[in-house]
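CORE FACILITY INTAKE
Project code: CF-77B
Contact: R.S. (postdoc)
Sample description: multi-component assembly, two entities in total
Requested service: structural model of the whole complex
Turnaround: standard
Below are the sequence entries exactly as provided by the requester. Do not edit them.
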Amino acid sequence: MKRNFIKILLCTAAIGLVASCKKDDDINKEIIGLGGDTWEKGPIDEWLLQNFTLPYNIDVKYRWDGAELAVDRTLVPVKEEKVIPLMETVRDAWIKVYTDEIGETFIKKLAPKQYVLVGSPQYNSGGTITLGEAEGGRKVTLFRVNDFSKSNRDIVKPILKTIHHEFGHILHQNVMYAPEYQLVTPTGYTSDWNNISVANARAAGYISAYAQSGPSEDFVEMIAIMLTEGKAGYETIIKGITNAAAVTALRKKEEIVVSYFKQKWNIEFYRLQNRTTKAISSVTSVVPLSTYLGFGKTYTSLAINPGLPDLSADFVSIFNTAKAGLAALSNNAGRQFDNFTFFFNANDEMVMRVYYRNAAGSAFEANFTYKMTVDANQNLKFVFVSADANANTAGPGIVALTNYLTQNTFKLDWYYSQDMKSEYGGLTKVGDPASYISGVLTF
Amino acid sequence: MKKILVYIFLFSIIASGCKREDDPVFDDPDVRLSTALSEYQTVLLSAQNGWKGFIYPAGGKGFNYYIKFNEDGRVSMLSDFNSSTAETMAESSYRLKALQRPTLIFDTYSYIHLPSDPNGSISGGTTGSGLKSDFQFAIISVKGDTIEFEGTANKNKMILVKATAAEESGYLAAGIKISMQTNASYLTANKFPFLDFGDGVKQSLAIDPTAKTLTLIYVDSDDVSRTLSSNFSFTLEGLMLEEPLVYKGSSFNTLLWDADAKVYYINNKGSRINVVNSTTPVIPLRMLFGPAKDYSQIEYNPVAVTNNLSSDFNTKYAAAKTGLNGLAGRTLNYVRVIFTVDNTMLLRFYYNNTAGSSFQANMTYEVTKGTDNTYSFRYIASDNNGTVVGSGLVSLKDYFSNNTFKLDWVANPGGGSSFGGLYVVNDNSSFFYGTLIK
C-alpha cells in the first residue's frame, strides 16, 4: 500500500515537473510576412494613402499578391499607370456620389475594406470573362484594369457597374430589402442565367441576365444598372421592352429599390442616380442628349415650364418679355403665357406648342412649326415654316422667344436641377453657355 | 529489482523532462528567412551592369530580357518580345517575398508579363492561359554570376546571368532589336540555309521568328528524315536556344552572327561552322516527291518556267513541238510528268489544234525505282489522243524510255520557288524540269 502510495507520489511529481517546465519563447517577436507586405512606397502608394486609406479606411492592393486570387486562373498584375486614373474614377463616380448624398460616415462605415486590382480579365471555362468579384462585403476584386481608359465610357461604365453592384450587396447584407422583392418575378430565377440573352431576361421582367441568377443579384443589378445607366438610359431600356407584364414587374422592382434606399438609408435614390450619371459623364465621355431626345427616340419632346427654378437668366428675361408681349396684344387683352413644349415630330421638324389662357381663363394652344437642321457638329438651327391660327394671333406677342429660337444656333445638353433631383434636357446657345432653354424630357 | 528499474526510469523522465532544448540547431527560422531575403536582395543589386535573363515558357517561344534592379523596389527591363520592347526600357516594381520559398515577384506589369497575359492577342498564346509563362520566381540557386529560378505558377525555369558593361551598352543601344532585324533580313536573303557538321549530311536550318523555333532537318543513313528543334530567344550575338541541339556528338546552343561576313555560325567543339545558303532546298526532292507526298507532278511550261536550263532537253522539246506542228498544225503548249499511285508515270502533253481547242495526250510508263534512288521508265501504252499525235512527240517519248533518271532540285535562276527536275544519270547537263505540283 505504502509502496503504491510512493509510486503515485513519484508519478505525480514527475508529471508536475514536466508540466511546470518553464517556457521562455518570446511571443512578442515579429513573424515574417505577418502584418502585410512591405515595400518602398512610391507616388502611387502615397496617392492611395491620401485618397482611400486615410479618408475612408480602404486598402487598395495594386501590387500582385497571388494569395488574394484564384490559383487556377491565369492572371497578370496591373500596369502602374492605370492605377490612379482607375481609382480617381472610383472615387469620383462612386464614393463621392454617396458622400455628396449622405455624408462621409456612410461610406466609411459600409465601404468594402479592400480593393484588389488585377491587370487582365479573369477568363472562365464557359468562355465568359469576370470583371469584378466581391467577398463577403469586405474585399472587391477588379479585373481588366490594364484595358482601363478614362476617356472610354464603354470601359468606365462596366467597372462602375461592378462597384455599385458589389456595394449593393453590402447594403442589403446590412439591412435586408423588403421580402416582396423576390415575389415580383418569383419563378424565373435560375442558375442557368448565362444562357439567357439580355433581351429574353428583360422580356421576363429582369433587368439583366445575371439578375435572373437570384433575388439578391436581381436587387443589386437593378441598383447598379439604374445608377450607371442613368434615368435616360434606364428609361430607354424600359421602352425597349414590349412585354407589358415585364415592364410592370420592373417598375415594381424599381419602386421597391427606391423605397428601400429612402426607408433604410434615408437616401433619395433618383437624386443618387442623377449624381452618378453626372459624375460618370464628368470623368469620361458624355452620351449626347441626341441619343435619347428626338424623333423616334426615348424622349420625343421637351417641356419648358418657366415656373421651375434652375433656368438660365438669359432665358428667363426672354420669356418675361414674351409673356408681357402676349399680355399686351389686342390692346392689353390679358392673355396669360403659361408654358411651352418642343415636339420633335420628324427628323427635320420641330413644333413649338405655346400654352396660354385668355383673360377669362380658357386654355389655348398655338403651334409654330420649324424646319430643323443638324450640322456636322450636331448643332441645331430652326427655320420658321408655318403657324396655325392661334399662332398667327399670338405670334406677334412672343416674338422675343421666336426670334431667340430662329436667330441662334443651339446644341443639346444635359442639365440638372440645383438639388440634383431632376435631370433636364436643354438647348444651349452656341457661343454662350450661360444662355439656354432647359426643360423636362418627356416621352 | 524490477521495481527499482521502474523508479530509475521514472526519475530519468523527470530529469530529462525538465530540460527545455529550445535552441534550434540553426537560428530561428524567421530570422533566417529575413536574412536570406536581404541576402538575395543584395545579390540582385550586385549586378552593376544588370542581368541577362532567359525564359522559355511552357506554352512555347523563348524570351531574352535585360533586367536591372534598383534598391528602391524598381526594376527596368528590355525584351525581345517585340521590336518595341527591345528598344524602349520599361520600369515597374518588384519585391522579394517569403512564400514557400524566397520568391522574386515582378508585382506590377512589365515586359516579363507579356508572355503570361491570358489575352491571347497580347501574349501570342492561348486565350485564358497565354504562353503559360511566369512572373513569380522562387530562387533555386545562386552560383557565380548566375541565378536560377523556378516559376511558381507554371514551373518555368528562368536564368539570370550578370551582364558585362559591354553587354549593358549593347542592350541599351537596342541591340536585341538589331539582332531581330538582322535575322529578318537574313531570312529574306537566304532561302535555304543549312549546316554541315563535317560528315557531308546537309542539315536544313529553319528559323521561325514568330514561333521562336530553330529546326534542323536532315536525312539519316536509313534515308529517313529527322528533325531536331528548339525554342530560341534573340540575344545581342544572335540566337540562344532553350536546349542544345545534338547531332552525332556535335552540339550547339547558340547561333552566332558574324556581322562582317553576314553569316550565322556555330561553335562546335571549339571550331567554327558557318551556316551556308543553298540555292535549292536542302532536303532531297526524292523525300518529298511521289504519289501522296508533297509533290507528284512536274510541269514544263515554256511560258512559266525559265527556258533552256538543259540544252539537251530543250532540243528534245523543240523537236517534239516541231513534230506535233507537222501533224495538221497542232501546237504543243506544255508537258507534265505525273507519278501515280499505281506505280506508273504519265507523260501528259497539252496542245491545241488550229481551231484553238485544247487537248491532252497521255503516254503511260511503268516505273522502276533502283536501289540508288534512280528511276527508269518503260513505255507501256498511249491513250487515243496519244496514238493520234504520238508520232510527232517521239523525241520526248524516247527521252524518258531511253534514259535512267534521278530526282533533284533545279535552282530557279529567277529567284522564285525551286524547280523539280529529273536528271539523266551520268549526264547532269540533261534533265527534264519544271514547276512542282501536288
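Facility notes:
- Chain A touches chain B at residues 3, 10-11, 13-14, 17-18, 21-25, 29-33, 37, 39-40, 42, 62-66, 73-80, 119-121, 123, 146 (CB under 8 Å).
- Chain A has a mean pLDDT of 90.
Invoice: internal transfer
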